[in-house]
Design brief:
Pfam families: DUF5753 (PF19054), HTH_31 (PF13560). The chain has twelve helices and six strands. It is an alpha/beta fold. The chain has a six-stranded mixed sheet, with helices on both faces. The model has no long low-confidence stretch (mean pLDDT about 90).
Length: about 280
C-alpha cells in the first residue's frame, strides 16, 4: 500500500508540474530506467533522493512529511512476504492492497471467494493441480486463511460479494465439503452483518454483464487520494487493472449485477436450501 501510494503521488505530481523525466535524471543522476522503476513501484528512493524530488516537484510541507512517512512504511514487509516462494508478485500485491483497503466488491462465476473459503474447500480446489506439490498446497491454503484475518480484526474490511448460483452448485470437494463451505458463508454473514454482504445472482437472471467474467474484485480505499483498483483473474492470467476507464466500466457492470442479484436475506435462504439438498 505505502509503496503504491508513494509511487502514485510522485507520478501524479510530476505530471501536474510538467517536469520531464530528463530533468529528474539530470538533477539526481538517475537513468530513465531507474526512475521508471520508482514510478512503477520496483524501487524505493533513498531518503536524500526523495527529499530532492520533493523539492524539485515543489511539494508542500504537509505532503513532504507524508511522503517521508510513506517511504519508511514502504520498506516494511507484510505477512504475505513470507510466502514469496509460492506467491508471484501480482498475488503478493493483491494481498498487500487488500490488507490496506477499506472495502472490496467482488464477483465469482463458479467458486466461493477466497476471503470466505474454508481450508478444506481451498485444499480441494488446489489438490488437482499437477504442478503443485502437497507442501505447496498446504502453504497456499495457509496464506489464504491468513488473508481472511482482514474480515474479523480491528477496522474490518467491508465486503460486498456477488456469486453466480453456479458457485452453490459446483460440488468442489464433494457434497459434504461444499455443504460445510456454504454453512461457513452463512455463519460469517450472520456474525458480521455490518461488513459482509453476500448475494447470489440466480439462474433466473436473464442477463448480466458480469456473466462473462471469472473472478473480479474492485478494491476501494479510505484515502480519497487513492483510486479504485481492479483485480481480475482467469485460468491463464491475473493481475491489477488501474486504467480508470476500465475501472469505471467494470464498476458500472458490478452495479448492474447488484440490481440482478437476490437480496442478502433471500441469498442466505438459497444457501440454506442448497445445504439441505446436499445432506
Amino acid at each position: 500500500m505505502a509503496r503504491w501510494e508513494l509511487a502514485l503521488r510522485l507520478r501524479k505530481r510530476r505530471e501536474q508540474v510538467g517536469i520531464d523525466v530528463r530533468k529528474i535524471t539530470q538533477v539526481l543522476g538517475f537513468t530513465r530506467n531507474y526512475w521508471s522503476a520508482v514510478e512503477n513501484e520496483r524501487k524505493i528512493l533513498s531518503e536524500d533522493s526523495l527529499i530532492q524530488i520533493i523539492d524539485l516537484f515543489e511539494f508542500g510541507k504537509d505532503d513532504r512529511a507524508e511522503l517521508l512517512e510513506l517511504r519508511e512504511a514502504a520498506k516494511e514487509h507484510g505477512w504475505w512476504s513470507r510466502y514469496s516462494a509460492i506467491l508471484d508478485d501480482d498475488l503478493q500485491r493483491l494481498f498487500g492492497l487488500e490488507h490496506g483497503a477499506h472495502s472490496v466488491r467482488g464477483y465469482e462465476s463458479l467458486l466461493i471467494p477466497g476471503l470466505l473459503q474454508t481450508a478444506e474447500y481451498a485444499t480441494a480446489l488446489m489438490t488437482p493441480d499437477v504442478n503443485l506439490r502437497q507442501v505447496e498446497v498446504a502453504q497456499r491454503v495457509e496464506s489464504r486463511m491468513r488473508r481472511q484475518d482482514r474480515l474479523t480484526g480491528e477496522n474490518p474490511l467491508r465486503m460486498t460479494q456477488l456469486v453466480s448460483e453456479a458457485a452453490l452448485r459446483q460440488e468442489i470437494g464433494g457434497p459434504a465439503v461444499l455443504g460445510r463451505q456454504l454453512d461457513h458463508v452463512i455463519t460469517m454473514v450472520e456474525r458480521y452483518p455490518d461488513t459482509i454482504d453476500f448475494r447470489v445472482i440466480p439462474f433466473q437472471a436473464q442477463s448480466c454483464g458480469l456473466f462473462g467474467a471469472a473472478t473480479v474484485h474492485l478494491i476501494d480505499f479510505e484515502n480519497p487520494r487513492l483510486p479504485t483498483l481492479i483485480w481480475q483473474e482467469t485460468v491463464t492470467s491475473w493481475g491489477i487493472i488501474d486504467d480508470q476507464t476500465s475501472v469505471l466500466n467494470i464498476s458500472g457492470t458490478f452495479r448492474d449485477g447488484m440490481r440482478r442479484a437476490l437480496s442478502s436475506a433471500d441469498s442466505l435462504k438459497l444457501l440454506q436450501n442448497r445445504i439441505k439438498e446436499l445432506v
